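During the reporting period the student researcher (J.K.) took over the structure-prediction task from the postdoctoral fellow and processed the backlog of single-chain submissions. One of the processed entries is reproduced below for the supervisory committee.
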Amino acid sequence: MYNKKSIKSKILLPILAVVGFTLVGCGNRGNNINHEPREIENVTFSPNDTFVSSDVLSLTNQQMLDRMIESPEAIFVLLDIVDTILLRDIVTLEDNHVNNLFNELVANVDDVDAWLQQFGFSNQEQLLNAIELQELRVEAVSHLINVTDEEIQEVYENWFANDDTVFEDYREMIYGMLVHEQASEIQFLELARIRNEAGLTIYNEALAASYDSYLAMIFSEVPVNTASGSYEVVASINGFEVGIGLFFEDLLYHFGLEVAFMEIDRLILKNSFNIEDGAIENAIAELRIDLGADFDAVVASAGFTTEESLFEFFETILLEEEMLSQKLMPSDERLQELFENMGTTVSGSHILVDDEVFALELIELLNEADDFETTFADLAREYSNCPSGASGGDLGTWSIGQMVPEFDEAVLELEVGDFTLIPVETQFGFHIIFKTGGAQTFEQAREDLIASEILNQQRTPGVVEAIYRDLRQSANIQFTHPVLQSQFDAFN
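J.K. obtained the following structure tokens:
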């Protein structure tokens, strides 16, 4: 059953989706926050300054910027800046609206600053700015939203009418929820139109291409306005020029840690583990065979613009596999434990009939056959009463104890490759059993046990990330940007 708290959650979820949050809870505890919208100011960008250093790799600000702009998500960071500049001029939010939403978000959080840092925000103001932008976007399209009294009444009746609640207590809350729902459906096209009317121009070629792809995705016919400009200016709107420094700073909050990790992790793997170039080339060749004529298109759509980038991608995957194989290698004691827990396993086939005399006749046919394995499968398909008859009587592999005792006892007495010369009677009828495989020794089962343990029991995201954290700590990673360093320290 929904309640007042869950309604508030539904109103806030669109905000949280934008900044990558999950709603923690709502309550009555407030915070003494007086949100003053941040000034959008261009900041200095020093391309040759060191951004991150480590034992395996150092990256400059320019190298980081180049890598972050390559991301398909970079355009959305630019649009956040552009929309904040634009929408503050054309719409107005009610006093304390942003503060109230922020308080709802953090009401049940004991240490707000630690909570924000955990999710990539260096302070409360960053989250307040994200909330403000989302609400500005909703307000910008509000003239296209039409929430009727009937819709509000329907939601109330579906969720609350049986709870002895008062409609007027929930009316405003339900209205807000429906406004946000409608806004999420229409704002993409409307905001594209508003940006175009305000003269949005993108000077960076990669970002312009990304925006063009975005517009195509939302079926917008708005054109992408591009122009040649100085390197220092990324875009302009309503007379404001978005500088490369401002864009770089916002990119860092979204992708800085992730991009740095991708580069550093790849080189840590290369320095710590070895794989043959031929293995990488074989992996690419297999993908080429699987995709056939679609190979080039699929690879390009995944963002691999050069053979080198594709090679590095597969190299990283295979290096990670090697890392996991070594780091997650179970001990001999663990393997022995797994082997003992397997129990005795055998494999085989059978023919099940109702009559013992008929079973003896089939055994005679098997004894006379030149190729008794083929004959066994043919007889099972023709005469067996068991569903396994359709597959030639094959029962696969099973552990002793899974079958009825008479069946298991007969199987254990057989040598691999033999069949029963006397029909085995059980509650199901009379069986002719062909033993195709016996119990494995520890050494025979060892490789399968290792693969199973690594794949199914230990390779959880948390375990894998813990291995990477250990490797990063040994690489002496240092960020010159204080916010990224604090995020790195908190993450590790």
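The committee noted the following: The radius of gyration is 33 Å.
J.K. will present the remaining backlog at the next meeting.
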